Structure formats: C-alpha cells, structure tokens
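[step 3/7] inverse_fold.run input=structure_tokens len=193
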C-alpha cells in the first residue's frame, strides 16, 4: 500500500463506520469533494468520495462535484525497509510509526518532510480561489498525509523545512474519525485562506 504497489478499495465496514460518524459531519453546504487521483493508492480515496456524495444525495443535499487532486496522495515510504515482517508482528503500528517519523526527518525510505510540507502548501494555494469564493469543500486523503496537513495548519502555513519527532507525535494519530475527519480547528484553516 505505502509503496503504491497496492491499490485497495475501502473496506466493507467503512460504509457502516461512515454512517455512524455522518451525523457529526457538516455535509450540508459542501460544494466539492477533492480526492487523491494520483494513481497511487487512489482507489480508496475515490470510493470514499463517492460514498460521501451518495450519502449527501440520500440526505437531500445538492450533489457535490468530485475533483481529483494528485497532491492528496499518501506519503510514499518503503515499509519493508522500515521494519521486518517479524518486527511488525511483534510490535505493530507503534514501531512502524516511530521509524516512519524518524525517516521523515532524513528522507531515508520515505518522502522528505520538507517536500511533503511543500505539497500541502501547493494544495492550499490551489484551493485558495475556492476558499475566497466561500465554498465549503471536503478533502479526502490518507492518514499519514493528514499528519502533515495537521502540522501545516498548526503552523498556519508558515514555511517549514524541518520537523521534530515530537511534533509528529503530537498530531491526531489515527484519530481522524478512524478514517474520516474534519478539521477541528477551522480558525486555523481560515488564517491560511
């Protein structure tokens, strides 16, 4: 998955999970849903966008436009270079996360943090005209990339070329509605636009 060699769809329980969290999501005014169309792990992103759109229509909302945005792709990293299968079985995601965070600082076996941060900046620059028009949108992306977006929002879009592991540990690890999230501090987003 992380290497882009696999392109799974959403799991069957994702529909049920989304329906559970849906009442807390402000879907009523969303005009567009942006999703990863990079060709790297993008099937899940598109299926999620279609699920949200279908739910909005079922709830009587106007159907949003679905727009592909390649920069919303997952962070590229080599899982096998970060830990062995035995290490994963024994220590699981915490060890993968620890090694992934370290790798982000050097760009070894993963994309370099500074390049990821620039990717987020490109996304927000591209979406600035939409924001200026006051049109609510939804971004659908991947958990690891959400950590970089969260740091960008926390930094209010200021230029940043290095990251401390503690900053990554202070993100909303696996807490984006277990796969579905909205920014909980919209004031940070408003400051960027």
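[step 3/7] decode complete -> sequence:
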């Amino acid at each position: 998955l992380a290497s882009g060699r696999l392109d799974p769809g959403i799991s069957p329980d994702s529909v049920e999970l989304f329906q559970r969290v849906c009442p807390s999501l402000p879907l009523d005014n969303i005009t567009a849903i942006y999703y990863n169309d990079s060709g790297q792990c993008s099937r899940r992103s598109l299926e999620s966008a279609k699920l949200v759109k279908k739910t909005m229509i079922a709830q009587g909302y106007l159907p949003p436009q679905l727009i592909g945005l390649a920069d919303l792709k997952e962070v590229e990293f080599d899982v096998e270079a970060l830990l062995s299968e035995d290490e994963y079985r024994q220590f699981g995601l915490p060890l993968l996360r620890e090694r992934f965070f370290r790798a982000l600082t050097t760009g070894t076996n993963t994309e370099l943090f500074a390049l990821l941060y620039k990717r987020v900046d490109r996304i927000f620059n591209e979406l600035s005209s939409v924001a200026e028009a006051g049109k609510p949108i939804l971004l659908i992306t991947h958990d690891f990339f959400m950590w970089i977006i969260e740091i960008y929002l926390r930094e209010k879009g200021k230029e940043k070329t290095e990251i401390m592991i503690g900053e990554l540990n202070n993100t909303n690890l696996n807490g984006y509605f277990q796969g579905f999230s909205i920014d909980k501090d919209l004031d940070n987003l408003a400051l960027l636009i």
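[step 4/7] annotate
Confidence is low (pLDDT under 50) at residues 177-193.
The radius of gyration is 17 Å.
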